[in-house]
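Thread title: Can someone regenerate the structure for this chain?

I was given the following input by a collaborator and told the matching C-alpha cells would be attached. They weren't. Posting the sequence so someone can regenerate them.
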Amino acid sequence: MNKGKEKIYNILDELNIKYIKHEHEAVYTIKEVNNLQLDIEGQHCKNLFLRNRKGNIHYLLILCDEKMADLKALAKEIGSTPLSMASEERLYKHLGLTPGSVTPFGLMNNSDKKVKVLLDKDLKHDGKINFHPNTNTATLTIDYEDFYKFLQWTGNEIKEVNI
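Best answer:
Regenerated them for you:
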C-alpha cells in the first residue's frame, strides 16, 4: 500500500473521521475520473497548487470539479500579487505530491504550515466531497464537516473564497 495513503487513513481514523474508499485505476484529471463511470456519491473536487508572483507564498485551491478558477479575480479577492500554477518541484517540496495526485490530504506533509488553503465556499453545500488519498489510484468520500475538521487539524491557514 502507498505509504501516503496508509498515513492519511491512519490520521482520519485517529480524528474519528468516517470515509468511504473507492479503489480504481490511476487517473490524472477530473475528466479521467468521470470517464471511469464509478458510482461515487458526492461532489468531486479539483485541487490546484498555486504560487504568487514572487513564489514566496503558496496556496492550495480546492474547488468544485465543474468550476474554472479565474486566477486574476482570485488574486484580487485574497489581496495577492498575480497567481499562477506552481511547479512540480514546489508541489513535491511543500506537499510531498506529484501532478495528478494533488489533494488536500498532502497538507499532512506541509510541516512548516506555510501553504494557505483557499476553499470554494460552495463546497460546504454539497454534503459529501471526494478527494484522492495522496495517490491517484483511489478516491475517498468524506462529509464536508469532517473534511473541514481535517483541514483545521493541519494547522494551515484556511480562507473561504468565491469561485
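Residues 3-161 form a domain with the YbaK protein fold (CATH 3.90.960.10).
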